[in-house]
Design brief:
The protein contains eleven helices and three strands. By secondary structure, the protein is mostly helical. Helix 1 packs parallel to helix 10, helix 2 packs antiparallel against helix 10 and helix 4 packs antiparallel against helix 9.
């Protein structure tokens, strides 16, 4: 599948070439990445350890946090390390691996957000049938299908990337490897490949966003028949989900649903959905969710108490 290439490595230009700004990038994104990993791992451990967070919503939140951690890890560590490197070199194989990981976990996040919307729709619009429809076996099957769908999507992306011949230059005007910056370096007409990219990644982003927005509009409309307390709880949950959807899908749609043109803000937009959103998700889901906060308090209270007894 791989074309004959005279290029065996690429040089990432990163976010900036200014030494002072590179040091700032190292500090800022180190904080972001550590916060992302710690925040999402905290949610993962809390959900796994707490008996009160056994509902399907938290089952899906567990996998969203897992996808967030892996998605951020596919780009953030290299950006952080490269910010202190004089020459930001990435080998061809490492570049292809990054393309695969970026799309695998990014697509998984999209599918999990859809499953969370389905869960909220069934819980609010069909409460009596909720325990039957959203059984643990059904949720497990849905997650397995999400992983399979994400894998198929990332395989499609890596096939497109491997078909690109590179004969120089090897300067990628980005901080990570993705199909858009790679298309600019390919020694061939990339018009058809770009169409495939838009019809794949672009279609997934756009259609998923539309489906999610319609589902939440239906959910919010149905809340008019609920009690004041039930309406408040459902609104809090749905608002968190809607914020996450807008923060993630806005930049994705901007990047993947347009002709192969370059804008100055492209790299910063990519930073927002690959690093910024995974950092914000734990904050959104914990600060706006009383059940998660209470479960975390109980979990760490038990751990601290057990440690003090030792």
């Amino acid at each position: 599948m791989q074309q004959n290439n005279s290029v065996t490595e690429f040089i990432l230009l990163g976010l900036t070439q200014d030494p002072i700004r590179q040091k700032m990038i190292f500090v800022i994104f180190s904080i972001f990445y550590v916060g992302t990993v710690v925040g999402n791992l905290l949610i993962i451990v809390t959900i796994k350890s707490s008996r009160t967070l056994g509902s399907p919503m938290y089952f899906f939140l567990f996998y969203l946090s897992l996808a967030d951690s892996c998605f951020s890890t596919s780009t953030a560590p290299r950006l952080i390390v490269d910010s202190l490197s004089a020459k930001k070199i990435i080998t061809y194989n490492e570049c292809m691996t990054q393309v695969f990981a970026l799309h695998l976990f990014g697509c998984m996040e999209i599918f999990v957000l859809i499953l969370m919307a389905v869960d909220r729709y069934v819980a609010i619009c069909m409460p009596l049938r909720y325990p039957t429809i959203m059984r643990r076996q059904v949720c497990t099957i849905l997650i397995v299908l999400a992983w399979i769908g994400s894998f198929i999507h990332s395989i499609a992306q890596i096939i497109l990337a491997l078909r690109l011949p590179f004969c120089g230059p090897n300067l990628i005007d980005h901080y990570c490897c993705d199909l858009q910056p790679l298309l600019k370096l390919a020694c061939m007409d990339t018009y058809k490949i770009n169409l495939l990219l838009v019809s794949n990644s672009g279609a997934i982003c756009s259609s998923s966003f539309v489906i999610l927005m319609i589902s939440y509009i239906v959910i919010l409309h149905s809340l008019r028949n609920h009690s004041a307390e039930g309406k408040k709880k459902a609104l809090s949950t749905c608002t968190s989900h809607i914020i996450v959807v807008i923060l993630f899908f806005g930049p994705c749609i901007f990047i993947y649903t347009r002709p192969p043109t370059t804008f100055p803000m492209d790299k910063m937009v990519a930073v927002f959905y690959t690093i910024g959103t995974p950092f914000l998700n734990p904050l959104i889901y914990t600060l706006r969710n009383a059940e998660v906060k209470n479960a975390m308090k109980k979990l760490w209270h038990i751990k601290i108490t057990s440690e003090s007894k030792k």
